[in-house]
């Protein structure tokens, strides 16, 4: 796995590089701004990019903009975005174009090495990794009187964990229920959100995005 890092904080940038190399991962470039990041993407053709949301010169959304541009230049590039705190608009913007190969984690999650590496591998494999705290805050901001209100408390729990990018077995383990129960809850979620089997979109991704769409 070839990785490019874009992080303007020197200590975190070097710490990430050391951590990933200790896991036998190939960090081909560690950059401190969006321009250098995009140049590294063009030069090295990485499999995954780890990008800070806020970078120079304005420290607003440069990371998100650069991540979108990097995926335009290199279709299929997996991107794991790091943020110091939950930024609802950026999470929604990042995932609204499709969630395959995308992740959004809080920086504090890096210190939980096993979880961080698992999220990185999941994103690299084309999956999704959304920080549980991001999911929780998005859920609490959901407007009333939407289709999401049809979900039972357990179905909402299942969808919240599914939004982190976990598969059925991992959801069952997290919630201490059987795989069969997870399958049943997910089937109910699809039905209550009017996501038909014939839909061309990935119903799991569509269900997660419904959370994000209702926080705008």
UniProtKB/TrEMBL annotation:
Residue ranges annotated for the Response regulatory domain, each copy included: 2-122
Modified residues (4-aspartylphosphate): 52
UniProt cross-references to CDD domains, sorted A to Z: LuxR_C_like, REC_NarL-like
Domain named HTH luxR-type: residues: 144-215
Domain of life from the UniProt record: Bacteria
Keywords: DNA-binding, Phosphoprotein, Transcription, Transcription regulation
Statement: the UniProt record of this protein carries the keyword Transcription: yes
Protein name: Response regulator
